[in-house]
Amino acid sequence: MALPIDQFKKLIAHSKEYGFIFQSSEVYDGLSAVYDYGPYGVELKNNIKEYWWRSMVQMHDNIVGIDAAIFMHPKTWKASGHVDAFNDPLIDNKDSKKRYRADVLIEEYMDKLEAKIQKEVDKAAKRFGEKFDEAVFRSTNDRVLRYQEEHGRIRERLAQAMTGGDLAELKQIIEDLEIADPESGSRNWTDVRQFNLMFSTQLGNIAGEDGKLYLRPETAQGIFVNFLNVQKTTRQKIPFGIAQIGKAFRNEITARQFIFRMREFEQMEMQFFIRPGDQKKWYEHWKEARMKWHLALGTPAGKLRFHDHDNLAHYADAAVDIQFEFPFGFKELEGIHSRTDFDLGAHQELSGKKLQYFDPELQENYVPYVVETSIGCDRMFLAMMSEALVEEEVPGSGNTREVLKLHPALAPIKCAILPLKRNEGRLVGLANDIFNDLRLSFQVQYDDTGSIGKLYRRQDAIGTPFCVTVDFESLDGHTVTLRDRDTLEQERVPVARLEEIIRKRVDMKHLLI
């Protein structure tokens, strides 16, 4: 069960206390919207990336990977439209001096309407019990219908304003809805203006515009400019894909909600090159495939949903988000976009180099179309943490525990080796032997710094699916107690079978089948 919003701070505190996420440069009071991954955070993040890479590249004979440079020729960003069009609508409050994205202020107003609708639904469900029909209620209740009508009206106005770049209309919507500064309550707003999100720097000792470089705001362009290099060296035939995991940088106006929106983040993207005209088929294919990828982790279906874009990017003819219900509501986790031939065509035009594919079946050259899947690694990390962290009673003890119920394949530590007594040489020796044997197969941890109960609780908090307790019975029978994190069941197993038993339960291949 995901954490409600009033426990989001608890998730943030847990992430720091147990070594998942730290504020960057904390000794200097931190750097806004920049975070460091701690010892357990980096393991979880690497496991998420491994799951994506193996499912995307290893399991497809027509998808290959690259690792493109962060710095690219500045003309790359001119061709892609980022220099001229990679903007967010910025608005300032004159009284508080705070800066906001105009579209986000309006979206948050719409979120409040959705919350009001859900509140009415929840009240009715409680009142009518098993007889309650949510679909009928949503389509007949006067108050819900009013909220829905208002939501739809605002959504349409926002989509038209964003698509048309109508900054005056964005401000008018804010004024019509009487949206106030979330911190001060002031409604004294400036006009809306465009704000380019790219970070710039200089190339060596070249001054001025000639030496201007950008930190890449997305990883996709590194794939597009390498399209022919990859196709020719791997001899791929269309349809085929190119995958990449890498850092991207955006000078966000209002970066917040912990690691959900950061200025330095990591993307996992795949660009799938297809024949023109086949985009609808492959768009639907990747929508289904990517949703299955998420559900395989055990994420409840009700926590995930598709959300079609109201205003399409300049390069797309179709776009949908896979949204996850974070503690602060349903938000974008992954995007699937039909990018047409915009990117390759734009780079071909500006560079003067042909970026075409010769199709041996059709006996013709063409600029391929592209369907993109793009997921934020950091958002995926936050989704897994917020869904997994629960506080529950320990049966029969009267106590509670905080436990991180991550899928075993993603857990930072797969197994903890715990001697019953730290001062008993024979127990410690056997525990170390088991630890050194298992560490060859997966990430394990040895711990003898407390009572067995406290050691269990710490491993629960970092998401370790299994604990091995080495006790005096282990010395003679060469068996140990294997404890399951989720069920709390304990079973006696031979030391010789530990690796086999644990591997069977934590192996990532079960997610890939």
**CATH 2nd-level architecture of the largest domain:** 2-Layer Sandwich
What is the arithmetic mean of pLDDT? 93
CATH superfamily label of the largest domain: Bira Bifunctional Protein, Domain 2
Q: In the residues, how many domains can be counted? A: 2
Q: Report on the biggest sheet.
A: 7 strands, mixed
| Secondary-structure class | alpha+beta
CATH topology of the largest domain: BirA Bifunctional Protein, domain 2
Helix content: 25-40%
Give the tally of β-strands.
23
Q: Helical region count?
A: 18
Rg, Å, rounded:
26 Å
Q: Ranges with pLDDT <50 over ≥5 residues?
A: none
Strand arrangement, largest sheet?
3-9-10-16-13-12-11
CATH top level assignment of the largest domain: Alpha Beta
What percentage of the residues does DSSP assign to strands (E)? 15-25%
Report the principal-axis shape: globular
Please report the distance between the alpha carbons of the first and last residues: 25 Å
Write a concise keyword list for the protein shown above.
single chain; 513 residues; alpha+beta; BirA Bifunctional Protein, domain 2; Rossmann fold; 2 domains; seven-stranded mixed beta sheet; five-stranded mixed beta sheet; 18 helices; globular
Please describe what this structure looks like.
40% of the residues lie in helices and 24% in strands. With 513 residues, it is of the alpha+beta class. It has two domains: 1-70 and 197-384, BirA Bifunctional Protein, domain 2 (2-Layer Sandwich); 394-512, Anticodon-binding domain (Rossmann fold). The strands form seven sheets. The protein has a seven-stranded mixed sheet, with helices on both faces. Strand 12 and strand 13 (329-340) form a beta hairpin. The model has no long low-confidence stretch (mean pLDDT 93).
